[in-house]
Amino acid sequence: MKTFLAAAIALSCSVVSTGSAQASDAFLSSELSSVKPGWQGQAQQQNVELDTSQQQSFGLRIGKVSEQRRYYLGLQLVSADKIQMTSFTGNHDWLWRAGSVSFFSGLTAGVDIASFEPELKVGFLNDRYQIKADTALGFGYGGQAGFLWQPSSHLQLELGFQLRKSTLSADIEVQLGNGLPGNADLEDLQRAYIGLNYRID
Questions:
Q1: CATH classification of the domain holding 196
Q2: What confidence category does residue 80 fall into, taking pLDDT thresholds of 50, 70 and 90?
């Protein structure tokens, strides 16, 4: 757990310090996303069905942007019926501009936190299982790509897609007889989003 937090803090510090070394402007951003969490569960080498349906999320970002790059810190909140997820990330994008439209691609890394309701139960064969952990912590990493459209000097509309791997894992207990121990892992997180960016001169 300490290793995950230290890595995220180190990346965040690197993002801020590198961005300030270039001639760049600050920007603020908010975003709405459609998210598909790739949960995979197992108990005694048998797969456990977990909810991997599309979910909605909201995010905030703050950072620096120049002609060819941008560096920013992000906060994403994913809300589901029984699982709440929060991600704190550091990000670096490369930009390719063509008039008022830009293409970007980049890298992301950070900390993922999941909170589970104690009553969370999902089908396991013809029986049930229950999450044992109230919260789980993991390290996430991946990349994103998309387009930016700048209708004015201060506003940008952003469309993007992000794919992140994660080490997030929670203990589960399958309610069969005396209970079978297992685990639920977040293998990946797919996120399609739209954002509105405000550039501060």
A1: 2.40.160.20
A2: low
